[in-house]
Amino acid sequence: MSKRSVFLLIVLALLGQKSFSQSPKYIIDSLKVQLKSSQTDAERVGLYSELTWFWTMVNLDSALHYGTASLELTEKLGDQKAIGQAYSDLSNVYNQKGQFAEAKAGYKKSLEIRTQIADSAGMAGSKSNLASVHQRLFQTDSAMMYYMEALAYFESIGHEHNINFIKNNLGVLHEDMRNYPKALEIYAEVAEYREKNQMIPELAMLYNNMGNIYKSTKEYDKSEEYLKRAMENGFKAGDSLVLSVTYLNLAALYNAADRPDDAIEAATEGIKIASKVNSYYDQAMMEYALANSYSKKREYLKAKNLYQKAIKTLTELEAKEEIASMQLRLVPVFAALNMPDSAQYFTDLYIDYQNSLTEEQVAQLTSELQTKYETEKKDREIVEQQLSIRNKNIQLYGSLFLALALGIVGYLLYNQQKLKNRQLQQEGDLKAALAQIETQNKLQEQRMLISRDLHDNIGAQLTFIISAIENLKYFEPIKDQLTQRYDTIANFTKQTITELRDTIWAMNSGSVSWDQLSSRIRDYVQKAGLSASQITFDYEINDSISPDAVLPSAMSIQILRVVQEAVQNAIKYSEADRIEIKIDSTGKENLVNIHDNGKGFEENEIIPGNGLYNMRKRAEEIGGSLEIHSELGLGTSVLLIWPVS
User: What mean pLDDT comes out for the span 238-257?
Assistant: First the structure.
């Protein structure tokens, strides 16, 4: 899990950004001396605010102490502008601690106060801070809205420093949406300004962001280069939080590059710093990175304990997406530890989370549309009431002002027609929205089908693996037998992981192009060729099928499973030396044909197993059929047919 969003925490936390050349600890000591000699409450408020800011870079509990003291003193003085700033300072601390609900509430209170006193600059700062919280909670639309409103204000007054920070956060937003070229374009512009102005802590944040992009695109050498630049600038700035995050990003990079020992070293250092500044979110994510490393090293007990510890912390912080990622990671760990019930439990939790995302999206869309419709309805009723009053006035004075009345009537008729047109437009919008909701419901059904596939297929295979491991204890200690048995379990586990990845790929895609499905089938055929070297495989997809044509994700996984089952059956039973997979379309029907030149069989002389039953069932679920043609000595063809949608 990338930790890019943490860098939002310094953005416009205090308007008129505080710049400094000394270390934060040096400045803190100086401010504490000034606080002791301060004469008035107004002086103390300013010093509390500064101490809150600089303690944020060193120790979050100390920052929280001074932020709370600042808010209490400003409320006593009754200075609304200072109260708005105090809420903003305190919310910055909560934001960095990962207590997002408290941060959001404080930023909203700050925005409310600044709006009341017409503090335009303060309002822009509060909006930028609110955007940072929404971004950390992956609420992209709200984050984009607040950022653009803040950016418009600072561009209007030409404040380059704050423009630079908001553009950086917009780059992070594009990065979160996986629009990497756009993110790098924005980062290049941001970097030029920061390098020119020697903004050391801010450059460290930017290099972290760029390192994470290159990690996502698997350019690991570039990623490590930028993250080490970030580390160098973090040490120069003396910013513990930036160092903590950079260690976390390095750990994630080393895990992605299959360097678990390096990842463990980086995460261990990061935990020391995160615990020092009491950043609970960073500590939990560092434990997550450590757990991933130990899982790669097959030290499953250590991995399990770290995953569960991190989940406990993130549950208190309501970081649902991170928790779901860890729940999925725990499934193979519990399987390896011979704990099938726990593996099944966390599989179900992950499926429930994915389903809840769709339900929340549908509920939110429905609520927004209902509110919009009711608002428009009230506006229409008010206008119609006004029209009725005007018509009565026209009738009352019509005999005296006939010419004027005709003009007014014409205006009213025109206005009324505009209202009718507006109403028709609203009804059309509502119908379109309902159609969108119906589409969301269909998507939910597809995801439920894939979830069932994940539950039934992968769950059953995990159970087999666990059972096979338990049966090993009944074998005589004969090395050859154990080796063969271990190889069988290992091969079956690899197959299970591949099927799990295929299922999750389809679940996360929503819809799949023919090009993507074809690539999955081609990858599988290549792997089959490696495991069955005595067989020649031939895969072909007809040009009549557009590679950009889209299939529902549920349909794509069913097609892939039929191909896998048919190829596996041919490898096991046909004694063939050639297997052909061809995909074609008649314009009305799609056809997938898996043919082998093996020994063939008489269908009425065999007992159908689960494989044939499952293939037929999958064909039925996509509205198609499965035909099997086989002759002794002439091989076997498995033909999947379904209508073009």
Answer: 89
